[in-house]
């Protein structure tokens, strides 16, 4: 149906507001006689008789009233003209005038005078144009949805110059950054809303959970969930336990490292050190705590992506990325945090095997480690093994991690080049290289019945560097490193009054720019902890309360429509030849689409979930150990897949998660129920909003299958070059264009400096964001049928076209406030670009956006074709 034409401009409306009774040609013919005089007759009668004082006063009031009415109407019509008129290019609007002529009688004579009021209006910015004529929806839901969209906007901004501010400025102003967070946006807000639903279930307030309590299995499952939640909420018990749980854990790590908790008969000192390090590492890794390296289970990408094998890669560091170790100020902060942790966990504390360790004091003669050290015998005269105090030991640990960071592969290569990071070798390759670890004993701890013969090493050079680093590191420094890794990971599970909790919180405050001492809502933290530990169990009740009816069907339709649009576009992409286009279409057809929650038989039934979480032992008074139990269960389930076929029904994200993902080896795109909620999706929304908002997530994940890394996996998830050489070279040109575009963007580091976005690191995600054009095309293809079905209805008060609202829906989901420190951390570690560039950087390459908002050819977001990076368009 055609869009409604703009209403006439106010300067075309020339009819007088009052007729002149003495001049029918001016105001039209006189009305027919009536038994009672009309207002015109009364006015004429007054003018024909001498004016009394009262009449003069009344006429003056009438004149004032008419003048004010004229001005009001002029302003109103001018505003409507500015809102409804089709905007021109920015800067090309001449001022317009509106003249209203009002005829009024003189207050002193019987004559009539004419007064003209001229109103000058300024140039309107690019914006809404020509809304359709159809009736708008005025149900409460429609009104609330319209209000939510309007409140997110900042219409003082020019959408063609800064659409991110235009689409999100109102939301950002209304949602100031909480003092306990370095970053808060629409994703975080929806996460809080989802966690509130989970919290109500855990508190016993959820309506579905009450009914399900009639079933015995649900009673047991909910009891497990609620005990974990209440153990987290019981801050009194946490304060009473103090540092105890973490000190016990760290103490056990030290005993293992020193060989005090193993039954191995050591042959010599080197074997003792090797077995001690092996036992400590296996203990930490089996509980999800990183250190030295990481071993995990994933498909064999180059041979059989559904056969699960062992992968070896570099570890997570105590600081977010290697760049932080190059920053002297950050190293000092990190060293100070480690010093505080080491003091806590080496101060004796009643542990029989913990040596004395006092706070730095030049007058103190008590230092740690005790002399001689290490206990398995080194040369007492070796200066490397002299006693160290807390400050010295913390500094040595920082230097040790700095060496690991320098030896690690850069994240842009790790994330973007799966061919480079696939290096399958015999297991002997790492067992004979990293001789300081007994891998046979290590692997027996994690998978006692399945010793692998091969392993994929993501960066072989790291294994050789690690060996050299370990040879040059004192035993006491290595032990302190292991203890600090445990403390950094587990201290957040202690009471907030403990020194360990405060120390790790200090580090997060600096890294994210959080206000010192600001603590968030405990219930939100605890609900999230339960979802992390037992997420599929909470998901059972979450989907019952939030994902009913045909939500899954409608969400799936958006995704499948986008897949169809993508396939259709392949034949018109200049850099892709016919052979590669056919193969790409086949891969798109082969992608498995998962929406909402796992649907394999009984996956979310209470009995199945009880079996799935059978290893998770929950005590309502032991939050620290409860979470450890959940970690052990997760690691155990992962390692049980070694040497088996991939479970194609498995999910990596739980139902309440506000996110989505593409798994290249399984060739699947997955959308949890948690993200299929406003502001991303609602089954009753008009389609132009659903395709603009949720369509962005759907097209993003689909496009990942063809991004810089995803394109290297074929339709079976196998790692290989399946495009022709010509197509690959053409793609690389477009990829290079995007890398240059995003590398030109900068952010303020909070200290007056500028930090550039890493276009290489963010390449894959930027390509994923470019998929918004596929969502737009999918919406257009289904529009006619959707309109007939009543699914393109208009919302009240939104003076925008549907095309404009599509892009507004896309832009507003990225609304976010973020501290400079958190923004710098994101640029250094996150393969996603900052939110502003995920909007403006993407739309820079979408001509359909510029057309929808009538952008000038000179506008920032309407560059000439040669300045655009058109990946999926001709």
Automatic annotation (TrEMBL):
The chain crosses the membrane at residues 57-77. SUPFAM superfamilies: Metalloproteases ('zincins'), catalytic domain. One of its GO terms (cellular component) is plasma membrane. Residues 1-41 are annotated as: Disordered. Residues 1-10 have a biased composition (Basic and acidic residues). Residues 659-869 form the Peptidase M13 C-terminal domain. Keywords: Hydrolase, Membrane, Metal-binding, Metalloprotease, Protease, Transmembrane, Transmembrane helix, Zinc. Residues 159-598 form the Peptidase M13 N-terminal domain. GO terms for biological process: protein processing. The keyword Transmembrane applies. Its cofactor is Zn(2+). Gene3D superfamilies: Collagenase (Catalytic Domain) (3.40.390.10), Neutral endopeptidase , domain2 (1.10.1380.10). InterPro entries: MetalloPept_cat_dom_sf, Peptidase_M13, Peptidase_M13_C, Peptidase_M13_dom_2, Peptidase_M13_N. CDD domains: M13. One of its GO terms (molecular function) is metalloendopeptidase activity. PANTHER family: FI17812P1-RELATED (PTHR11733:SF167), ZINC METALLOPROTEASE FAMILY M13 NEPRILYSIN-RELATED (PTHR11733). Belongs to the peptidase M13 family. This is Metalloprotease.
